[in-house]
Amino acid sequence: LLYTHATIHARQDKAFTVQQGENGLIIAPKSFRRYNVLAETIQAINAKSAAATYIKLRPLLLQVFAEFAYPKDVSMESIIKKAAGEIIAAPVLEGDIYVTRPSMYYKYADPSLEALSPVKKQMLRMGAENTKIIQNKCREFLVELAKSAI
Fold first, then answer.
1. What is the pLDDT of residue 12?
2. 99 exposure class (CB count in 10 Å sphere: 0-12, 13-18, 19+)
3. Residue 137, class by beta-carbon neighbours within 10 Å (0-12 exposed, 13-18 middle, 19+ buried)?
């Protein structure tokens, strides 16, 4: 558990890198590998155990959630499902991802990718394999939550 916490919260110590592709700059494959440890850690989570732990801690979590002053029609589970849905809906791109650098920061060369939500753009930066791992774990967790009928 401490390893997982440290891994998820660790600052990326490796730089985002690009390389020359056929038609411009692409995200370098080694940039995707920066997220391998995170993806492997998430993959190691037992979805059934995670859902059971969530259910067990839910009363306490609901008390904390109430202090955030969300509107009454917003539930904690709706936020979890929306967040997981955003991750699951992220595109998985197997080929090169072209970027430009109009200023200090890189942007996706494809306007449809640049228009994606921050979460979906982050998933693209993780690479196809890591994205699939994280998306699959989100699906597994949602299935286990659904079995609990909360």
1. 64
2. buried
3. buried
Cα 65 from Cα 74, distance rounded (Å): 10
The DSSP H or E segment spanning 134 is helix 128-147
**Sheet hosting strand 18-21, strand order edge to edge:** 18-21, 24-27, 98-100, 107-108
> What is the reported pLDDT for 4?
44
Q: Is 59 exposed, middle or buried (0-12, 13-18, 19+ CB in 10 A)?
A: exposed
Q: How far apart are CA 31 and CA 36, in angstroms?
A: 10
pLDDT at 6 over 90: no
When pLDDT is cut at 50, 70 and 90, the band that residue 149 belongs to is confident
- Round to whole Å and give the CA distance between 40 and 134: 9
**Could you read off the pLDDT of 91-140 as tens digits, one per residue?**
999 999 999 999 999 999 999 999 999 999 999 999 999 999 999 999 99
User: How much is the pTM?
Assistant: 0.86
Within 88-145, strands assigned E span 98-100, 107-108
Nearest-5° Cα angle at 37, 16 to 80: 95
